[in-house]
User: Fold this.
Amino acid sequence: MDRPITDKDLHQRESWREALQARRRSYAGSYRLAGAAVFLLALGGAAGWSLHDATAPGTVGTALLAREAAESYAVYEPDLVRPVEIRAEGREELLGWVSKRLQHPVAVPNLAGYRFIGGRLVATSHGPAGLFMYDDDHGTRLVMFVRPMSLERDSPMSQHTLGEFIGFAWADKGMGYSLVGRTTADVLHPLADQLRRQI
Assistant:
């Protein structure tokens, strides 16, 4: 026969119920904390990865400019039929076109021992850029690359080695310049100095 339920039994059941609810609330809070920790970890990882991309070598300033110049050089330098879109005879048309697209007057400097053969507009992640090509009597081609700079609006000349290409890049008054070639730094550096003086 069942014994009657006393006040003590009711009080004990109520205490167990409260303890059980407290434990459930504790678990729910732990799950919420764990969920928040996982979310923050994922958010931090995504932010860290985006900063990694933004600060990786060759992704900002003149380092990026030099890389863009080398990539354009690699595409157009070996082309025997159409390395440039507008040839040297259309120099004024080319300069007008590139200056208008870059919203900045550009010039084609002279390079000792090299002749200007023409140029074109090329696309970059920062908008259009001008590519001006030179060659010498041995068929060696050099490219001068120019585009507006959003970072490093003024920076000294620096050397960049990009695979088999050597480049010198700098920024002056918001415009970035790079001279790229398949040659040695001691040949290219004086030519880059010539360009910088004329610009």
